[in-house]
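Researcher: Next sequence.
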Amino acid sequence: MAEDSDAAKEGWDEKEKQEHGQGSTNVPFRLTLDKRIDLVIMGVIVLYGVFLIVESLKIPAGVAADRITAKGIPIIAGIFLIIVGMILGVMRLKTWSVFPGNLVPGQGYEDEEGHTSSAIPVFSIVVVTWLSVVLLKSLGYLIVTPLFMIVACWIMGARSLVKLIIFPVLYTVVTWYLFSQPLQFVLPLGFLTKFFRSLGLTP
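Model: Next structure:
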């Protein structure tokens, strides 16, 4: 295991030197990942996507007219997982031959300066997510979604106007329109339901 780690480190250092010049020094060594475990995880992602599709096909059609139907979202999610799993697999296979042994460089550093590990942001986002689910019915998608994204982005360190305000608002409006109009998927609008119903935008 130690030999594999050293080999992965040497291979990574060589790659960094090629990208930044032969004179590069103090190249940070990224945590190593076991190729075999990585491959199993990718396989699980693909298989879970297949499982979602197979199980979704067993869902009976609902009474209300729905273009997506109850099967739609799980099938889309399954297809997405299969595609992403295969892409990750291909990307990883391309790099595996560069590093001898069973280990390859991971995606992070052992200790990134200025980014200390903390459980507070993680649990904060969990709490915010739970609150957004609770408030979704009363406040509606158009109110809860941008507020949730703004708070979540702020917790993760975003401070720019684009990331905190513009992107959440645009994302909310675009996704609401795509799902509620072309796809006829009814999203909760809360106290705005009567107003949107008067405009003919929701049943």
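Model: The first helix runs from residue 2 to 20. The beta strands are 30-34, 103-109.
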